[in-house]
């Protein structure tokens, strides 16, 4: 459908803890033995309603809900899932038409029709939940239904990335009989049409998934049941793996645990290691009297030592990042390094002095305690040490658990705060558009008319993404000039598993979301 570079290839390397484990990764599956596969993660959902989440909740959504388009194993462009076919029907990328598979049903047997698709998309915009995914639908004008199986999306501007938006778990199809049109569902129940149905859910503890016999889509399930357990930290998660209480770990492995698995692993564990596109960054709040000043933001950018953070805190399990667009994506630049170079206290001092700031700048940095891994607190201590050692800043650190943390930054309570980003889809647009404009994923308005009104619309008119590099680079340079967002590091993918589990190297889609149906137990060695 689109002409794209295959920049997100499957996992590049497998660090085998034992030769026996490594040789068994591609062996056949046995979906019925030893009960459900148990997956551990530190990223618990913030909500079970797709209209309310633009975050790690998508990991669960991908497996229990269905979207019109998604990513079969090995694909880097969206392919039909709930849909039988989808395509633009005009030369300007403004009319996108999908035809559903015949006889689609939700897990409870209710029919899944074109009207259900329309109402699922419409309610996202109607509810417009704080921190929700309505911002992804900025180019959508209206949704039209033709009969029971055809849906037409009319866009208000050309948008070659729209199929990628439809493939995000945010666009999950829900049963309109069970989901209110103007409010989020909060009873802990799920009615989707994905490969699994949610049998039970214990908030922040576990989700029990079982096979959905009504599922029709591309997923070829290698198991009949998966239980996802949610942990508060990496150490307890890895202990559960070693004690064989879980079979697989993903999201939240701490650097020390990764290094231990790599260097001092046991013969009954394996580690899959490959390139990733998740990023960590700082957000400056324009409502704060200090953070709103460009000189303050640029001085912070001039002092922060990304290399030290990657090495000292993350033990080189992440890479320093000098743009909001990560390495590996078409259009990536190193603009922050090009403009600021290596960390320099003298340059930072001059930036502040030229702005008339002659005393140490007081800033409060906020971070979440239970979302981005065990090193988050250590990283913020390192940031505090670096900035205060310069003599130019006094830093106060504060933290909250994720659910209350989100409420705080949406209310504009934090002068400077940390966020992470896992891509909605594998395109540089998705590392720019979500962060700019009055209504963005951060809850912190970032007006930039040149980006939102010129560069992004022009780039979205091109289905060949290699032709929009100049616009994407220009957008990144504007973000550097503003220094409203400060990229810190780019992560890698790590999946640790028991040696009798296969499929870990196939289970991550281009947005690094785990497709649980690819996991299975080995039957041969």
Automatic annotation (TrEMBL):
Keyword annotations from UniProtKB, A to Z: Signal, Transport
Main localization of the protein described in the UniProt heading: other
GO CC list: ATP-binding cassette (ABC) transporter complex; cell envelope; periplasmic space
Any GO MF annotation of the entry: peptide transmembrane transporter activity
Swiss-Prot/TrEMBL GO biological process terms: peptide transport
Domain (Solute-binding protein family): residue spans on this chain: 77-440
Subcellular location(s) of the protein: Cell envelope
Name of the protein in its database record: Peptide-binding protein
Species whose genome carries this gene: Streptomyces cellostaticus
């Amino acid at each position: 459908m689109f002409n794209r570079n295959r920049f997100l290839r499957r996992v590049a390397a497998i660090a085998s803890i034992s030769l026996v484990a490594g040789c068994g990764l591609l062996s056949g599956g046995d979906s019925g033995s030893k009960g459900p596969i148990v997956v551990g993660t530190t990223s618990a959902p913030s909500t079970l309603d797709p209209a309310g989440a633009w975050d790690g909740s998508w990991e669960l959504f991908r497996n229990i809900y269905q979207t019109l388009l998604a990513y079969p194993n090995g694909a880097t462009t969206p392919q039909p899932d709930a849909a039988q076919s989808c395509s633009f029907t005009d030369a300007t990328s403004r009319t996108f038409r999908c035809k559903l598979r015949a006889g689609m049903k939700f897990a409870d047997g209710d029919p899944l029709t074109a009207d259900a698709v329309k109402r699922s998309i419409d309610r996202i915009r109607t509810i417009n939940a704080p921190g929700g995914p309505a911002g992804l639908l900025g180019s959508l004008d209206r949704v039209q239904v033709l009969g029971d199986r055809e849906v037409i999306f009319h866009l208000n501007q050309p948008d070659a990335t729209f199929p990628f938006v439809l493939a995000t778990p945010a666009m999950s199809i829900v049963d309109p009989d069970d989901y209110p049109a103007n409010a989020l569902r909060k009873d802990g129940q799920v009615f989707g049409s994905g490969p699994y149905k949610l049998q039970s859910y214990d908030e922040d503890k576990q989700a029990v998934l079982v096979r959905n016999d009504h599922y029709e889509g591309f997923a070829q399930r290698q198991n009949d049941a998966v239980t996802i357990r949610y942990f508060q930290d990496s150490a307890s998660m890895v202990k559960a793996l070693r004690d064989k209480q879980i079979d697989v770990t993903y999201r939240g492995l701490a650097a020390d645990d990764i290094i231990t698995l790599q260097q001092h692993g046991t013969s009954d564990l394996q580690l899959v290691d490959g390139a990733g596109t998740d990023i960590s960054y700082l957000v400056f709040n324009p409502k704060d009297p200090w953070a709103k000043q460009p000189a303050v933001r640029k001085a912070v950018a001039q002092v922060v030592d990304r290399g030290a953070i990657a090495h000292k805190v993350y033990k080189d399990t992440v890479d320093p990042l000098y743009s909001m667009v990560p390495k590996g994506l078409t259009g990536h630049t190193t603009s922050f390094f090009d403009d600021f170079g290596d960390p320099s206290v003298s340059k930072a001092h001059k930036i502040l002095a030229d702005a008339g700031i002659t005393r140490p700048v007081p800033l409060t940095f906020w971070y979440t305690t239970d979302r981005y891994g065990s090193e988050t607190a250590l990283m913020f201590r390192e940031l505090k040490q670096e900035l205060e050692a310069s003599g130019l800043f006094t830093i106060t650190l504060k933290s909250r658990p994720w659910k209350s943390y989100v409420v705080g930054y949406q209310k504009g309570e934090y002068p400077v705060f940390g966020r992470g980003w896992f891509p909605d889809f594998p395109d540089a647009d998705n590392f720019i558009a979500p962060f700019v404009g009055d209504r963005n994923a951060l809850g912190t308005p970032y007006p930039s008319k040149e980006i939102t009104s010129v560069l992004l619309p022009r780039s979205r008119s091109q289905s060949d993404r290699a032709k929009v590099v100049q616009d994407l680079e220009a957008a990144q340079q504007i973000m550097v000039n503003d220094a409203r967002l400060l990229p810190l590091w780019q992560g890698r993918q790590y999946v640790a598993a028991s040696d009798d589990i296969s499929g870990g190297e196939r289970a991550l889609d281009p947005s690094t979301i785990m497709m649980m149906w690819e996991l299975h137990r080995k039957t041969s060695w």
